[in-house]
Fold this protein.
Amino acid sequence: MANPAQRSAYRQGSRKNARAIAARLLAKVSGGSSLTALFQDQLAGVNDSDQSLVKEICFGVARYWPRLNALAEVLLERPLKAKDSDIHCLMLVGFYQLLYMRTAQHAAVAETVEAARSLKKPWAAGLLNGVLRRLLREQADLLARLDVDPAVQLACPEWLLKRLRTAWPEQWMQIAQALNERPPMTIRVNLSKVTRQTYIQELSKLSILCRPVPAVPSALVLEESLDVARLPCFAEGWVSVQDGGAQLAATLLDVAPGQRVLDACAAPGGKTGHLLELTRDIELTAIDVDPLRLQRVSENLRRLGVAEGVSVVQGDAAKPAGAWGGAEYDRILLDVPCSATGVIRRHPDIKVLRRESDIAPLVARQREILCAIWPRLKPGGMLLYVTCSLLPEENHRQIEEFLAQQPDARERPIQASWGEALPIGRQTLPGEGSMDGFYYACLEKLG
């Protein structure tokens, strides 16, 4: 949480210090904080245009972190001390401006050097000036040397690229390239209130261009990102912002009127709301372990006008308890915690935050949740297992192991034109069909 003194510093001359603010935030990312949380907490008081610049820089540096960091290692005679991580990140900010932004070269160098003084580290001004000017002089040669390494060229963490090559031997380069793309803004049309074609016409009246996602009846991809306030009837619940791949979940769960449904790990509530848009007459319980994120579920349901009758409860899906934990359900949506490697283009700081050592604990947590929730499914019912991961350990191998140990479980094959068919379930790959990377498997309980 930013203290008052920090917030005051951000407010004073924020245009001049935008790069310093970005460097501070990126240093916190390298220490384990997410950009989403940092933007919510530490940009209060910064005007909209400066916020846009800070976010552009932070997302961009995170997106190309492996490449920019490799460049820093070559250009620095020795690594900076840990206490100067903000200066290291400011250097990456300078690299990003020179390589990927349209900022004039002299302005990028001058403003980055000035930002060192804003960070109260004037000693770094000369260092940054020298390093950035050397990059300008030797850019072609430096990048040619570094890009011999595919992990550097593709700006993909080495451990992740190795796993992608093993899991997706034919598509690994396409996937790595897609993870560097800017994600499109995709919206979900509330088909209980308006048809997709009618909403396209409403957007057209405002000169907002879009295109349908063929595999997803409710999805539209906007040609340009915009503030949700500009979307017709957003406040009235006509549309929500949600990736097309994520919108597949509600249709795959195949809910019917009168059924009791559990949305486990529900926050922030996009899939919860979509379920109720498709079938209002269900008994729905939404749980999440995080009380703050659970508030977002309630807020989203209220905006959509579907909050009445829905039970929103704090709870750990790995430890069913209370009324929700003792009930049985016809349908369970299980969107488990995962590596989020399929949504890196939308959350590029995952390249900095995620470590290979995280994968085994995540796989164990997924197995714990799946085994704990399965008894809550009625005989004849269906559970939809979901991740936004690209890694087999979290996806079809996880389900293969579960099915081998659970005699009353069987797969319901997903017949679809979208994504890649796996030994069990289907996978969307980042960028294909304008969607992020999601894994889905439908499991039925024998009765």
